[in-house]
Structures are given as structure tokens and as C-alpha cells.
Write a structure and sequence with these properties.
single chain, 106 residues, alpha+beta, 5-stranded mixed sheet, 5 strands, 14% helix, 24% strand, globular, 2Fe-2S_ferredoxin-like_sf, iron, 2Fe-2S_ferredoxin-type
């Protein structure tokens, strides 16, 4: 299991525990945890509604792909630590990370 912290749009933080052996994306875990992540493209890196900012723990997550960067750079708010949750797999590298929801909430 991997534990990470999510900061919602109101600034509230909550620890989330997720299995690291099922190949889930961070977006899937956030939706299952009932966070307001639209994910209108279903995890294909086409809509950027699962935009997050990695506040701590970015180094282990690898670099964003060109497709992911194209979506992120089209957003009105884009940070050097911005990522799409659909492109991050739940793994040991996420353990201890702190992420902030940035995508549209519904």
C-alpha cells in the first residue's frame, strides 16, 4: 500500500491509502475517493480536468510526456510541478507525496 496526501480546492488535506499492485492511476484513486475530478476524457490525457500540482514528492514520479505537457500548457494556471493525475500510476514513488487538486471541480 502507498499513502499520500491530497489537498482539495478548499485547502483541506487528507491522507489516502491506495494499493500499488493493481496498476491504477492517481486519477482513478481520486475518483474512487470521491474527489471532484471530472476526468471527462477517461484518462487519455486529452482534457486536463484531472490537473494536479505535486507539492512534495515530484522527483520520483518521472517527467511528464509530450502529450501531457501539451494539455498542461494550454491551461490558464500551469505550474512547474503540474501533472495530470491520469498519467501517474500508483507506485512506491508516490508514497509520502502531497498533491493539490487543480482541475475543474464540479
Amino acid at each position: 500500500m502507498v499513502t499520500f496526501t491530497v489537498e482539495d480546492h478548499d485547502g483541506n488535506r487528507q491522507s489516502i491509502e491506495a494499493p500499488d499492485d493493481m496498476g491504477l492511476s492517481l486519477m482513478e484513486v481520486l475518483k474512487a475517493s470521491e474527489y471532484p475530478v471530472l476526468a471527462t476524457c477517461g484518462g487519455m490525457a486529452l482534457c486536463a480536468t484531472c490537473h494536479i500540482e505535486v507539492l512534495e514528492g515530484k522527483n520520483g514520479l518521472g517527467d511528464a510526456t509530450d502529450i501531457e505537457l501539451d494539455q498542461l500548457e494550454s491551461l490558464p494556471e500551469y505550474f512547474p510541478t503540474s501533472r495530470l493525475a491520469c498519467q501517474i500510476r500508483i507506485s512506491d514513488e508516490l508514497d509520502g507525496a502531497i498533491i493539490k487538486l487543480r482541475g475543474e471541480d464540479n
